[in-house]
Request: fold
Amino acid sequence: MNGKFPPDLPVITETTFSIPANGEAGPSKLSDLINQYKMPMWVDEIRIAATGYADFFSLFSFTSTRILFGRYPITHDFVPTGVLAPRWPGDGHVVIRLHKPLYVTPADLPVPMMRSTVALTIRFSLVGRLATPLPSNAKIWVPYITSFNGTSVAVGTKSKQQSKLTDLANPFRSPLTVRFFIGRRTMTTASVDAGTINNQPSMKLRMSNHLGRPVVRDPTPFFDVFNVRDQAWAVNSVLAPGGYFLANVDVDATSATEDQLFNIGMFGYREERIQWST
Amino acid sequence: MELLDIEEFFADSYPVVVSDSIDLDEGENKQLDSQALSNFFDTPMVIDEVRVQIQSPDVELQAANYGGSVRLKMSAGRHALSSTYVPVGCLGPTFDGGTRDSTSFQAGIYSPESILAGEILPFHLGFFRWKLPRPLVVLPGTPLETKISRQVEGLSQIYPDDTTVSVNVAYAGRVTKKHLQRGQTVPVPYVGLFENVFTSASVATSGQLDLYNPFQSPLHVQRLIGRWQNIYLDSSVPDLSFISLDANGIYGDTQIDFPPTQIRTFSGFSVTNGFIPGLSIWEANTRSFPVNINLERGEGFQVTIDATGGLPSTQAEGSLYNGSNASLVTMVGWRNEIL
Reply:
């Protein structure tokens, strides 16, 4: 810190961009995400909001997001927006709270790209504090979000779906601290995942890890695994390099009134070295 | 003296809740029973949460969230917990405390703390919680003085015979068996308020005495909370009237887009890069902006709200009465004091 600014001065930066229907877009002005002091900052929250958006519908069901941080991915390609963070009421706002803040410099910004089936205007914000510049090659924590995306199960049918080995995996050479899983389900037309409890189809999950050890041993109802309020399951465990979780989801939509869809996200952190000298 | 390690001192404590209820009409100021809300044990107590439940009058409002109207001014002994009467909806981040339809578990579309009970219950229930940024230590016999007030919302003009809200305030905490000497240094929570009633689409700026540290010791600011109260009155169809936080419109199906806001410190440092949309600061789930900064004595935040782009509607066509729009910004934190 050059001594001119108060330590830990809170800062918030924000950029807005539009996504066309069935299109993909990202910010055109990345400079908006650089704080006004041109200093490094610790990002405590990454926020994604859809402006003027009705709150009943979930962004999860028809948008997906990819965030790159220089050469480090924060998401595993495009993941459904709804699995970026635990759900809060009033969807249309996703807040990724970083328990291990992300060190961001003007040369290194998290860059989002989003896809959507409907036209949206997105506000992407970084909330944090000014940081004392770290020496080059210092270690930082970088978040990582990946997902297992189910295929739609039609009304009156059943389906057994298994994740690929690369879906809920640690692709890095360092351990991944898995903070939580997020499980979201949606009806493809109404797009409300918690919705009403009655008239929901059976959706059960089994999960094991790369060593064959059971994580969720018996087929367990979705909302017994993922808290019905925020659709999150806090795990706080470490996944070895190359390790993965294997999820098996059994969907019984024989009594459902709408086609069923689900997504399971995995949120964690790994250590990396900062990319640019500050 | 060193700062008391609260968790260590209260490690063998047992839970306790003290509470009191009161009825409030529009414009009333009252004080809750200090004896009921005191530490009546002979050992220290620590308060973890302040909980408020508001039951609306028996009316058929579209939405009733009194979190901006009902306010608390709190102190514990000689230590003030709030600068003034602070809306109960602005003490802590919002949470999903209620539903739009009481028969289902859907997230609240608006007025998230209110349950619109409709045919099931003839009133609205609002739940508000302030999880204190640091637990508040209360010595034996110390009264928790809680003054409560309610705005003049204008609803009594629409429903003249049915305007009383019932409020219950509870302090939830723990009691230990150990004794504590006076003179210990403990954290004491504090909340300051900047409020502006917008009578027109204009710009409002907080004053020097709104969101600042009035104490001799540094104030650690945990967060800023920003909410918007919208009161809509319809004398022709009273049921379409509502009082809500952060919601808008007939049937309240959209969130209010909080006007563009700029935040600076008193020393001139920008927190926001100019004016940015309010919902980018007060993120729409919790209406909270994490700050985590120490303010020295006299230091504070200046918040400027630019509502020149327009305001949510407050009056139905042909209605005899007009509601209001108000921005409510609070600063929540704690400072160290000697017991």
